[in-house]
Amino acid sequence: MGGERRAPKWARWFLRVTVREDRREDLIGDLNEMHKRRSGTFAWLSTSLVGVTGLASFGPARRAASVDPLTALREE
C-alpha cells in the first residue's frame, strides 16, 4: 500500500498504443507525475486525448470531449 503512485495501467497502455514511439516514454512519465499530484491535469489530459483520437462519438466520451478543460479544472 505504501508503494509509488502511478497512473492506472489502462492509461499507460492507451498512451503506448496511440502515441508515436519517440514520445511515448516521456508522456507516460508525465502521466505518472500528474497522477502523483492528483491535480485536475489528468482530467484535462484524458479529455484532450478523447477529443484528439476521435473516441468522442461514443456515449459518455462525447460529453467529456465537449467539456472545456478549464471548466473541468474549476469543478475539481
Keywords:
76 residues, mainly alpha, 2 domains, 5 helices
Overall description:
By secondary structure, this protein is mostly helical. The chain folds into two domains: 1-38; 40-76, no CATH class. The chain has helices at 9-18, 21-37, 41-53, 59-66, 69-75. It is globular. Residues 55-65 have low confidence and may be disordered.
In helices, the fraction of residues equals over 70%
Radius of gyration: 13 Å
Q: Say how many strands there are.
A: 0
Q: Describe the biggest sheet?
A: none
Distance between the termini: 25 Å
What is the string of SSEs from the N terminus onward? HHHHH
Number of domains: 2
Number of helices: 5
| Bulk shape | globular
Structural class: mainly alpha
Provide the low-confidence segments as ranges: 55-65
Mean pLDDT: 64
Q: What share of residues are in beta strands?
A: under 5%
What does the secondary structure layout of this molecule look like, with pairings?
Elements: H1 9-18, H2 21-37, H3 41-53, H4 59-66, H5 69-75
Helix pairs in contact: 1-2, 3-4, 3-5
Task: Report a brief summary of the structure.
The chain contains five helices and no strands. It has 76 residues and is mainly alpha-helical.
